[in-house]
Design a protein that fits this description.
Length: about 200
């Protein structure tokens, strides 16, 4: 079975392809099949992921899986949420992982409540009009550190401390991060749903 991954992120493709391989499923990056990006006008991860999955299924005629993920900080009422990738731009920085971390540390200076969650929502559709999309959510609760720790990973990994592991994501080896990450959890749940419903 072939499934389009509604993403152009090669790292995400490699990670998910390895997980889906035992099912005999081949994931194909949407950028290898067509150009263009789905609109993501919504305020929730699930709505944006559904928009991306329907868009990819419509363009390719294949089932599609899309991911929308982000950081939800308690002190900011759950924000930046769906705007995580562009977080730093509201403070005058150019969009980059490094600037996102810099802006977050600046905004969190002197803040006592450092609780935050990383959330990954995967949505799968068999066709653009699939009335029963598969929805898998992975969520990891942690704390925002006061300074960067570790050199692995990407995004907010250097400041996302996971208490049960005693490390930030950026301090974890890839296998350990995958076992504890929001995307690792949503991927395992989606794998089970695809096996159960589509195969």
């Amino acid at each position: 079975m072939k499934i389009v991954l509604a993403s152009n992120n090669r790292g995400k493709l490699a990670e998910l392809q390895a997980m889906f391989a035992p099912l005999g499923v081949e994931l194909i990056r949407q950028g290898d099949l067509f150009e263009g990006e789905a609109p993501e006008p919504y305020g929730t991860f699930v709505e944006n992921a559904l928009s991306k999955a329907r868009f990819a299924a419509e363009r390719t005629g294949l089932p599609a899986i899309a991911d929308d993920a982000g950081l939800c900080v308690d002190h900011f009422g759950g924000l930046p949420g769906v705007d995580t990738a562009y977080y730093c731009t509201q403070f005058g920085y150019e969009k980059s992982d490094d600037n996102n971390v810099r802006a977050l540390l600046e905004q969190m200076q002197g803040v006592e409540n450092r609780r935050a969650a990383m959330v990954s929502t995967l949505v799968g559709v068999r066709s653009p009009r699939d009335p029963e999309p598969l929805i898998a959510v992975g969520r990891v609760q942690g704390l925002i550190t006061t300074e960067r720790r570790g050199t692995q990973g990407f995004g907010f990994d250097p400041v996302m401390f996971i208490p049960e592991v005693g490390m930030t994501f950026a301090e974890m080896a890839p296998e350990l991060k995958h076992a504890h990450s929001h995307r690792g959890r949503s991927s395992q749940a989606m794998l089970a749903l695809v096996r159960d419903r589509w195969l």
